[in-house]
Amino acid sequence: MSVLKYLLQKEFRQIFRDPSILKIIFIMPALQLIIIPLAADYEVRNINLSVADHDHSVYTQQMIQKIKSSGYFKLVNYSSTFQEAFTSIESDKADIVLEIPANFEQNIVREDHASLFIAVNAVNGMKANLGASYLQNIILNYNNQIRTKWIQFPPIHPQTNIKVAVSNWFNPMMSYKYFMVPAVLATLLTLLGTFLTALNIV
User: Fold this and answer.
1) Structural domain span for residue 63
2) What are the tens digits of pLDDT across the range 119-157?
3) Checking phi first, is residue 57 left (phi over 0); if not, alpha (psi -120 to 50) or beta?
C-alpha cells in the first residue's frame, strides 16, 4: 500500500506542477466530447430534390408536401417535364429527380396501383443510397396513409391484425450523436492515459 501511496502522490504532484497537464486532463477532453459528436454525424439531410409532375393532382401535392416536411429533402425544382427536372441533376443543383406520371391519382383510385420513377445522382454513392431509401420510405408511408383512409367498413371475415409497438430506449430520437459519445469517450480516455504516461516519465 505504501508503494501505491507514494506513486499517487508523485502523480498528483507532477500534474499540479505543470499547468499544461491540467489543460490536457480537463479542457481538451471536454471540448472534444462536446464538438466531435456534433460534427461526426452520418445522417444525410438537405437532399436537393427535383420533381417532374405530369399529374398536378391533390394526391401528388400531398405527397410532395409530405416529402418536404420530412426534414431530409429540399425542393429545388418543380417542373412539368422530366427533361427539365433532369437538367438540375446535370447542373449539380439536384441530387434526386422524382417523376410523377400523368393519371397518377386516377390510377390509384381506379386501378389500385400507380408507378413512380426516381433518378438519383450517384456521384456521391452514400448520399445517393440514403436519399433514395429515405424517399422510398416516405412514399411507402404516404401509400399506407391513403389505404388507411379508404378502409371504412370491416370485411365479413377480418384478418388478424398484429400491431407492433416499438420503443427506442436510451435514445428515443435515434440521434446519431448519442451513439458517438461512448466511442469518443473511450478514445479520449485511451489518449489521455497515453499522454499522462509520457509526460510523467521522470
Assistant:
1) 47-147
2) 999 888 788 888 998 999 999 889 888 877 766 545 554
3) beta
- DSSP letters, 155-199, are -SSPPP---------S-TT--HHHHHHHHHHHHHHHHHHHHHHHH
The CATH number covering residue 79 comes to: 3.40.1710.10
- Cβ atoms of 51 and 95 closer than 8 Å: no
Four-residue CA torsion sign, 166, 167, 168, 173? positive
Pairing of strands 73-79, 117-120: unpaired
Number of domains in the chain: 1
Confirm whether 52 is domain-assigned.
Answer: yes
Amino acid present at 119 = A
d(CA 26, CA 5): 23
Bridge partners of 50? 77, 97
